[in-house]
Specification:
alpha/beta, 57 strands, twelve-stranded mixed β-sheet
């Protein structure tokens, strides 16, 4: 109790789940354990296999250990002295035996359960105790907490916390260790008499090896439990399995019914009933964390979480009780499939037959011949007697028995609740409810097991309502959130109101009451149900009586016979015999699998069994014979007589193979004649005046919603890549390839090829070199799933293995088609190919193959064993949500839901309906021909009706024959619309009529028959008849092919249509054959979808919805008026005969004409809202006309009497899309209108319509009453009665039909089922079994809720369905995991024909672009600045010089100007030869990332990468080395001293084990001594000598530290320099990188500090290495003195081709090549600093002379000589421009600086982290505050807002932004710069700075005659003297700025330099940075020159 309630959070439940979560996470091999709350709210109710042994077996095995180890010797604790030690009593002397306490009232605390304890000394009795339910397992053997909590029911002592202690108290006297799993054996509950009895065993060992062994024996060839599949294509021949019977003894005991091909488990645990109410699903199946019950349970197996279902093999995988208007048959009951099998197979006996009946029953001879029916016997309670004799005329089914058993197996949580247990329904109550159900069935209805099952459940709930509610209240106290409670309807569905149920909870139904209560109920329906019960002593006797009555004709009007046997000495027995002719036929046909049914149909056609039926249908009674009338018409209208009708009939009577191409008439034969009154297409199409301006093909367009779905697909792929599982590394792929798998349908194949070819995806993916891709090229990417697919997919897997940089997408379209397991498929069958290919290990394990399943019916892929994660499902946006409105669709989807809504609107003829005339005809013929399959009868009748309708509509047959009487009105309307539409359009556009005939043989016969009639009537040029065979290519007559080619403007004379989409506007009848549609899309010219002959036997949701999906349609949304809620029509077209011959009389006021339909409004508007207000306000008529119009809308039948033709015209206009006030939603047709037509349509008054053409309704006027006015039909209204018809551009009926979905005609039985709703308000078909290959996990499942989203429906099916054994997911169980999802598998689901193909094709293009985008990076592409004024100099080096010449470099002038564009906002450095631009440089904003120019550059193979790159080559480099464990590194301290730092600095190196060879350690303690450096003389082609240092901050993920590819595999030493607080995160992301951790004092420092420390540490290390080398005997000076300082955004390197300097070009090279070339430079040690230029796309353009080397500023990538630059340090305090300052000081010190211009570095734009991102914030809050630069400083000792930023940063930023105020004379005054001594500071772009050095022997520019506008002294040292400053001349009023660390040193500097002699100071000119005293602010003093 309490262990399996989803959606209810309780403290005890939380403890259990928390316990399981912790335990599972400890055992889990996955990265992320499942969250606790996911279990609480998303727990699965899963079944497991019960032990099939008998109860005695369980009892005898009580001492079985859970492992094979011997029992542990155990010594019981001696009992206390004086206590009781008697067996069966507790130590307090109280009796504990069940036999003694059975009748006592026991006090059981809440949350405790009564449990029977097995004592070894009392084998025949149980001891009663109370145990906390939390420490007991649930019915699945899980969720038991560790430990024990129990009470003694004898003495009442409570609180035993240890089972050892408790076992001592109850005197178990054990010889082994007490274990609760071993001795707590049974649940106890009270029966109907209130006696405490033994219940089900506790499921301690539900998962042990013994159970698995039994299950494997059951599934692997056990003779009585056959688990072979009954897939339609794989089912065995009837009579192949012998049968026997096993009857259960007790409903609560685990047992198995064995009948050769039937096995049903009777005590499978059920989910709690409180989940059966409506609402959202409460669980997702595979997510349940199925942890072990206890850690010490060695027998626990992860397989326990998966269902192990024993399934039976039957003739039909969906064997059912067939049809009903309420429900659907169930082929699965309680997880075991129930079979309905022919007695011919089951009565052959079996050697293993158990408990055979003593009496046999003989089936009478010639039963089928005499009674014209084949009775069906439903086994009920008790053993069915053996049938002998003529058993082939009887069918036997076990469906009813399985239903009985499942309804008696209640969830254990209810069985053991409280003192008054909840009992299941008794057998007597089940039988009585069955009688009630059969009584209320109509004469044409067939019983459905699922209906009966729901009645059982609701009856049980009603009888125990108070107990269930009490239980729920006790469990839900304190619970918040939605509660899934039980809803009991006021009445049971289908139960007669005058029959009341016995109050079972008060007075149980006794066996003696049952017979007369059942007969009383049956008496209410006359002879419909007969109960044999009072005088029947056995089932055999009852069956004999039934057969006798059947033979005697006494059951002529009886549909069901219920046999009841009651006896005081035995259990009640029962069975139900179906004797109704219609019911028996439906049940018999439902026993065929779909493939067997088709074979039976073909057999009947080939053997001539249908010839009598065909002859019968050809006879028209008094009106003649169909063939003779045709012969006469053919002779009259054709000069050359065709073959005689007898010859044609003979040809039709001998059907050829359905797939033979000879079945089709040749194009020449089919196009020999034409209608006299209809010009040929060639004549009309060639005439310009006869072209239709409204023709437009739109199926090639990509709609906004498709783009949105494609983006959703892409985001899911990115989510897989972004997850921590590393299942998909998108960064490692450089291109996309794909293969689309489609069902073996030629049209589907060509259709996908056409979409692919026209989408442009192939050109986008670069799959073809040419710009133009032919359709033949596209065929290489689409494969039909037949035997040829094996080689194609094998080739793809081979390519995937060899091309690891290509991402392969396997698109499995129409994914629900083949989900068969390979192990159950024959080798020559195409079924099972998906499992064999897509689920193969090669495909599953390939990390570069992504599988996308695409389907309209995903239910079969959403089971408990699915391979697809629910997070990887993408659902099409629902039309009922507001999301669709976001996409601005010009079309609106009209699918199954909208079709159902049209049947409920009541304002017009529904789009989905049935033909009552056709149904009555077929019903009569089914009784006349009982041996013929109903599909043969229905198809024959339908084809005959089409033939008669063609004859009547053609006008070639005299009206005296009254042909209209021999066809239905629906068929007549279809044919008439087909013929008249062609005549209306000048281009002969027309409609398509879809005739769905699943049987290939019947479809071929129908095609030949209709083709012959068309030819004899001379209609070959009016419309085409197409046989849609999935195995054949599409064949169209040449005339119609030419017509389509002209419409589509195709120039290729050899072109032929390959898809149905290309038949747009072609008038045709398409006979679509095949067992199921295979994804063929239909054109928008489809007007009628005739499904009257589809099978009614297979009622899975997928089967029904894919048939209805053929009518799915995209309606033009812009043609819908905003306020008109109802579907409109041209005019009312139905005649009186139609109204009287169809059962939809009340809904036929308007017909499905060509007027636009508004599908969205009827879904939300009730019929009574359809008033005058809904009409467009622009159309004004009289009040009478409006009244007539509204009455017509409200009451169509009344309108048929009152409505006049003029009003008809006005009604049409009022319902047309008139959108004057909404011009943005004008239809395409309206845009085409001229102004004259627009004025005509918008006119105030309308002329009466004139009927110009005769219609079908006018040809039958003599059938109508004289008083009824003539109502024009579609033809009349289409021609002239509509004002739109007067326009030549609107005369095309096809164009008008684009705004109306097709009409659907269904069989009556299917119509009744589909249009019915269940208790949740959903269509009944949604609660059907979702697919033939899955089964319900439990019969106690809740219904789908109307509010469920697609995602919630998926979770529902994932919880409540399990795959059958022949489902490809049935073996998807892996040790240790229940959520065995494939990480690279996606599912796209959407309604049929909504545009999924276009969506996934666009997704492929998006994915390709994204991969290209991933392979591209944003590179800074900025032109050098300050270059225009440079004077061209001499050529110092030859353009192709490989290395610089030292002497030449010394003669080259140093370029003081900074040219890097990132420094376009800094002060220009004064240089005598430089002339700045007049306009200067504009002032930039602070955020450089938004303003700097970048270019998209594709990564080369030598690029540097960030942490998101994971290729196979990088694994070892990144730390995935098998020799070293990941993260195995050591922290080493290193201390050195520097004068500028003032104290010893301790650094830390993090050195991975794999990199320790780069360092030397002391031999004694392993202390780090130095970093090893090579010798200058060393040379290794695969090694880089210079250590690479990369300072970084904030870029642990995005920094480009992966140099493996950049180095081209060369050995190198790379050190990341990180701040202390970032050490951990960098170590996590880069475990195999050496890291230098800066001291804590540098946590807030800038880039200057990092470079300072790197340089000084490197020099210190150089000295250590020299000492080490000296000790080793090597020369000290030969140690390599260079290091590399690289920015963390350097991504690629380029080199200039020296051989092409006439046309210079750059190529990508490796960093290894760059460095090795620079390191090989002669005299390199004479240079202090080397570097390379920064790349830009225009760097080599327009250069007249190429200088390969230059002297100037170097940035980002430096080769630094730490030996020569020993005395020049980086400024450790600098945040900005530190490299400019360092280069100037290096040059002034006389060191050579050389830039290698032949190399360039590309810098990637990284908007995250870096040393330039410092936030100025206040001390008061951590939130960044907008503080202006003027607030960065303040007066000393003032109360100012202090800032939390470093003082140096504040001062640098202040000088940068306010220098124009500080140095007013310097602003935009290049000739008078500011003199900056020993330091360069950025004073803003408007101020020029002249750098000079005060050091002796320094190199400075000449300043003679130069007047300075200011003086900047930055921490002047002793080299700056007053004499030095007096060398320079200043302007009057020039500004002085002296900066020091404190106020005292500031004053000392002023005095030492004698500044007061020439400069004037004021007290107000002293400032400090806005820092608190503890933050050590900087001070500066300003003054003016005197």
């Amino acid at each position: 109790m309490g262990n399996s309630y989803a959606g209810q959070l309780r403290s005890t439940r939380f403890e259990e789940v928390l316990h399981n979560s912790i335990e599972a996470s400890l055992r889990s091999n996955t990265v992320v354990p499942r969250p606790v709350f996911s279990q609480l709210y998303l727990e699965t109710e899963q079944l497991f296999l019960q032990d099939v042994r008998t109860l005695n077996d369980v009892e005898d095995d009580e001492d079985g250990s859970e492992s094979n180890s011997p029992p542990i010797p155990y010594q019981m604790k001696p009992p206390p002295e004086g206590c009781c030690t008697t067996d069966g009593f507790c130590q307090a002397g109280k009796d504990l035996r069940l036999s003694s306490l059975a009748s006592d009232n026991l006090d059981v605390p809440p949350g405790f359960m009564l449990v029977g304890v097995k004592s070894p000394s009392l084998p025949d009795n149980l001891l009663v105790c109370a145990v906390d339910h939390r420490f007991l397992p649930d019915e699945r053997g899980r969720n038991a907490l560790l430990g024990f909590s129990g009470n003694c029911m004898g003495c009442g002592e409570k609180g035993f916390r240890y089972f050892t202690e408790f076992s001592n108290h109850i005197n178990l006297k054990l010889s082994t260790q007490p274990k609760k799993q071993k001795h707590l054996k049974y649940h106890l509950y009270r029966n109907n008499q209130g006696i405490l009895v033994k219940g089900a065993p506790i499921c301690w060992r539900g998962n042990d090896g013994r159970i698995r062994q039994i299950r494997s024996s059951l599934s692997e060839g056990h003779p009585t439990l056959d688990e072979r599949p009954s897939n339609p294509a794989l089912s065995h021949a009837p009579g192949s399995v012998a049968g026997s019977h096993v009857e259960p003894q007790t409903a609560g005991v685990p047992s198995t019914l064995i009948n050769g091909n039937h096995a049903a488990t009777s005590s499978i645990s059920q989910p709690p009933l409180n989940q059966s109410g409506p609402g959202r699903p409460s669980a997702t199946g595979p997510h349940a964390n199925a942890g072990p019950p206890k850690k010490r349970h060695k027998g626990w197996s992860p397989e326990s979480s998966a269902n192990s279902l024993t399934e039976s093999t039957v003739k039909s995988a969906q064997s059912s009780l067939a049809l009903s208007k309420l429900s659907v048959t169930s082929v699965i009951t309680n997880g075991a499939r129930s079979e309905t099998t022919s007695l011919q197979s089951s009565s052959r006996g079996s050697s293993s037959q158990l408990s055979p009946p003593e009496v046999s029953v003989t089936v009478p001879d010639r039963l089928l011949h005499i009674c014209r029916l084949q009775p069906v016997i439903f086994k009920g309670h008790g053993a069915l007697p053996q049938l002998t004799g003529n058993t082939s005329d009887v069918l036997v089914s076990s469906l009813l028995r399985s239903c009985y058993l499942s309804s008696q197996t209640l969830p254990r949580v209810y069985q053991h609740y409280g003192p008054s247990p909840i009992q299941p329904l008794s057998a007597e109550m089940q039988i009585l409810l069955t009688v009630y159900y059969l009584v209320q069935l109509g004469p044409e209805q067939v019983p459905l097991i699922e209906d009966l099952e729901q009645i059982f459940m609701r009856s049980w709930r009603e009888s125990h309502l108070s107990e269930i509610r009490q239980f729920q209240q006790s469990q839900t106290q304190g619970t918040q959130g939605r509660h899934y409670g039980i809803e009991v309807p006021p009445t049971l569905p289908g139960l007669p109101q005058h029959l009341s149920l016995p109050p079972q909870s008060q007075q149980p139904l006794t066996p003696s009451q049952l017979p007369w209560l059942a007969q009383l109920a049956a008496s209410s329906c006359g002879e419909g149900v007969v109960v044999l019960g009072e005088d029947v002593k056995s089932l055999a006797q009852g069956l004999q009586q039934m057969f006798s009555r059947l033979i005697d004709g006494r059951l002529e009007n009886t549909n069901y016979v219920v046999i009841i046997v009651t006896s005081p000495r035995q259990e009640t027995q029962s069975c139900v015999v179906v004797t109704g002719k219609h019911q028996c036929r439906v049940l018999a046909e439902s026993m065929f699998s779909p493939n067997e049914g088709l074979k039976e149909i073909s057999h009947q056609l080939h053997t001539g069994a249908a010839q009598e039926l065909i002859h019968y249908c050809n006879s028209l009674g008094q009106d003649g014979n169909l063939d003779s009338l045709l012969d006469r018409a053919s002779a009259e209208h054709n000069e050359a007589s065709p073959p005689s009708s007898s010859q044609m009939l003979a040809e039709e009577k001998t059907p050829k193979a359905a797939h033979s191409p000879k079945d089709r008439p040749s194009p020449k034969d089919s196009q020999t004649q034409s209608l006299k009154d209809t010009p040929s297409p060639k004549e009309t199409a060639s005439s310009p005046k006869d072209t239709c301006l409204e023709y437009r093909v739109e199926w090639r367009e990509v709609r906004p919603i498709q783009l949105a779905v494609a983006r959703k697909l892409l985001s899911h792929v990115c989510a897989i890549a972004d997850s921590s599982t590393q299942n998909l590394d998108l960064g490692s792929f450089n291109r996309v390839s794909f293969l689309i798998l489609v069902p073996p349908s030629e049209v589907s194949f060509q259709q996908t090829v056409l979409h692919l070819w026209s989408s442009g995806v192939l050109q986008e993916l670069g799959s073809s070199e040419q710009d133009f891709v032919s359709q033949r090229d596209a065929e290489r990417y689409v494969v039909k799933m037949d035997q040829s697919a094996q080689s194609r997919i094998d080739k793809l897997t081979q390519d995937a293995q060899s091309n690891s940089y290509t991402l392969y997408i396997l698109v499995h379209d129409h994914a629900h088609w083949d989900i068969s397991s390979t192990s159950y498929s024959s080798t020559d069958s195409s079924l099972g190919l998906v499992d064999r290919l897509l689920n193969s290990r090669q495909v599953k394990d390939a990390t570069n193959i992504l599988i996308l399943h695409v389907t309209s019916f995903p239910f079969a892929l959403q089971t408990q064993c699915t391979r697809i994660s629910p997070y990887n499902e993408i659902h099409w946006p629902s039309a009922f949500s507001n999301d669709v409105d976001l996409y601005h669709e010009r079309t609106q989807y009209f699918g199954v839901s909208e079709l159902l809504e049209s049947t409920r609107s009541g304002s017009s003829l529904p789009l989905m309906r049935y033909d009552s005339s056709f149904e009555s005809t077929t019903s009569t013929l089914e009784e006349r021909f009982p041996k013929l399959h109903s599909a043969v009868i229905r198809t024959t009748v339908l084809v005959q009706q089409y033939c008669v309708a063609l004859m009547a509509a053609s006008g070639k047959i005299s009206s005296s024959h009254n042909l209209h009487k021999h066809t239905s009105v629906e068929t007549m309307e279809i044919v008439q619309s087909l013929l008249t539409a062609v005549r209306q359009c000048p281009a002969h556009h027309g409609h398509m009529v879809l005739l769905r005939i699943p049987s290939l043989a019947l479809a071929a016969w129908a095609h030949r028959r209709l083709s012959r009639v068309r030819k004899q009537l001379g209609l070959e040029e009016s419309f085409e008849i197409i046989l849609g065979n999935p195995t054949q290519v599409l064949t169209i007559g040449q005339t119609f092919t030419d017509q389509i080619r002209i419409w589509l403007k195709i120039q290729d004379a050899e072109w032929v249509p390959h898809t149905y989409l290309e038949l747009e506007a072609l008038p045709c009848i398409l006979i679509l054959s095949g067992a199921e549609p295979l994804g063929e899309s239909l054109p928008r010219s489809l007007k009628y979808c005739d499904l009257r002959v589809i099978s009614c036997s297979y009622l899975q949701r997928t089967t029904l919805e894919q048939e209805l999906g053929l009518a799915a349609y995209l309606v033009k949304a812009e043609s819908q008026p905003p306020h008109n809620p109802g579907p409109g029509s041209d005019v009312i077209e139905s005649d009186a005969e139609k109204l009287s011959s169809t059962d939809n009389e009340e809904e036929e006021g308007q017909d499905n004409g060509d007027c636009p339909l508004q599908p969205s409004q009827p879904l939300q508007t009730c019929p009574d809202s359809r008033t005058v207000d809904a009409l467009p306000p622009q159309v004004t008529t009289s009040s009478n006309a409006l009244r007539d119009t509204s009455e017509n809308v409200q009451s169509p039948s009344k309108a048929q009497i009152q409505l006049q033709p003029q009003t008809s015209s006005q009604l049409y206009l009022q319902t047309t899309p008139n959108s004057q006030s909404h011009p943005q939603v004008q239809s395409y047709a309206q845009v085409q209108l001229g102004s004259q037509q627009q004025a005509h349509l918008q006119g105030q008054s309308l002329p009466p319509s004139q009927t110009n053409a005769p219609s079908y309704s006018q040809t039958a006027t003599h059938q109508q009453p004289v008083s009824q006015p003539q109502i024009p039909s579609k033809s009349a209204s289409s021609d002239s009665s509509s004002p739109r018809a007067s326009s030549p551009h609107l005369s095309c009926s096809w164009a008008r039909g684009l705004s109306r979905p097709p009409s659907v005609l269904l069989p009556r039985a299917l119509y009744d089922i589909i249009t019915a709703s269940d208790s949740s308000g959903l269509p009944r078909c949604t609660s059907f079994l979702p697919h033939i290959s899955v089964a319900w996990a439990s019969s106690f499942r809740p219904l789908l809720s109307k509010m469920m989203t697609c995602t919630e429906q998926s979770l529902y099916y994932r919880q409540w369905t399990v795959p059958r054994s022949y489902h490809m997911d049935s073996n998807n169980r892996t040790e240790g995991r229940t959520d065995n999802f494939h990480p690279r598998r996606l599912l796209l689901s959407g309604p049929p024909q909504v545009g999924k193909t276009g969506a996934y094709l666009h997704f492929l293009g998006l994915l390709s672009r994204m991969l290209i985008r991933l392979m591209e990076v944003d590179i800074y592409d900025e032109e050098d600045i300050h270059c225009t004024a440079l004077v061209e100099g001499v050529q110092y080096h030859p353009p192709n010089a490989p290395w610089p010449n030292t002497e030449v470099i010394k003669t080259m002038p140093f370029d003081y100007t900074v040219h890097d564009a990132k420094y376009d906002d800094i002060s220009i450095i004064y240089c005598p030869g430089f002339k700045p631009r007049v306009d200067g440089n504009p002032l930039r904003q602070e955020d450089v990332y938004l303003r700097r120019r970048t270019s998209r550059i594709k990564l080369s193979k030598y690029a540097a990468y960030n942490t998101y790159h994971h290729c196979e080559q990088c694994h070892q480099y990144l730390g995935f080395n098998p020799r070293y464990q990941m993260y195995e590194s050591t922290l080493h301290a290193f201390t050195f001293t520097h004068l500028l730092l003032g104290e010893d600095i301790q650094l830390y190196f993090i050195i991975p084990k794999s990199k320790e060879h780069h360092f030397s350690f002391s031999q004694s303690g392993g202390q780090l001594e130095s970093m090893r450096l090579p010798l200058a003389s060393d040379w290794n082609p695969d090694c880089i000598k210079s250590p690479i240092f990369t300072p970084t901050t904030g870029r642990h993920e995005h920094g480009l530290f992966n140099l493996y590819h950049a180095m081209d595999g060369a050995s190198h030493l790379h050190i990341l320099v990180v701040k202390e607080y970032e050490m951990a995160v960098y170590k996590k992301y880069w475990p195999n990188h050496i890291m230098l951790v800066l001291p804590t004092v540098f946590n807030g420092a800038g880039i200057g500090a990092a470079h300072f420390l790197i340089k000084e540490l490197s020099y210190h290390n150089l000295e250590l290495e020299r000492s080490r080398r000296l000790e080793g005997g090597s020369p000290a000076g030969d140690v390599w003195p260079f290091i590399i300082l690289a920015d963390d955004s350097c991504v690629m390197w380029n080199a200039v081709d020296n051989d092409k300097l006439s046309c210079p070009a750059e190529r990508a090279v490796s960093l290894k090549q760059v460095l090795q070339h620079m390191e090989a430079c002669p005299d390199l040690t004479q240079y202090g600093l080397c570097g390379i230029r920064k790349w830009n796309s225009r760097g080599l353009m327009g250069i007249k002379q190429w200088e390969p080397f230059s002297r100037g500023h170097i940035h980002d990538f430096l080769l630094l000589n730490v030996d020569r630059s020993q005395n020049v340090q980086y400024d450790q305090n600098r945040f900005t421009c530190h490299d400019v300052d360092f280069t100037l000081r290096l040059h002034s010190a006389g060191l050579l600086v050389c830039k290698f211009n032949n190399f360039s570095v590309m810098k990637k734009q990284i908007a995250i982290g870096g040393y330039r991102t410092f936030i100025i914030k206040t001390k008061m809050t951590d939130v960044s505050t907008s503080v202006g630069p003027s607030q960065y400083i303040c007066a000393p000792d003032s109360k100012h807002l202090f800032l939390a930023s470093p003082a140096q940063l504040l001062l640098e930023k202040y000088l940068q932004h306010t220098s124009q105020k500080l140095f007013p004379l310097s602003t935009k005054n290049y000739t008078h710069p500011v003199l900056s001594v020993d330091c360069y500071l950025n004073l803003g772009p408007e101020v020029t700075v002249c750098f000079v050095s005060s050091r002796p022997h320094c190199v400075n520019i000449g300043t003679a005659g130069l007047l300075f506008s200011g003086l900047l002294l930055w921490f002047p040292d002793t080299f700056v003297t007053s004499g030095f400053l007096k060398k320079f001349t200043f302007l009057k009023g020039a500004t002085l700025c002296v900066i020091s660390a404190d106020r005292s040193s500031l004053r000392q500097t002023v005095g030492r330099l004698e500044l007061e002699e020439q400069w004037r100071f004021r007290l107000s000119d002293e400032f400090q940075t806005a820092n608190a005293k503890e933050d050590r602010p900087l001070f500066f003093l300003t003054g003016k020159h005197i």
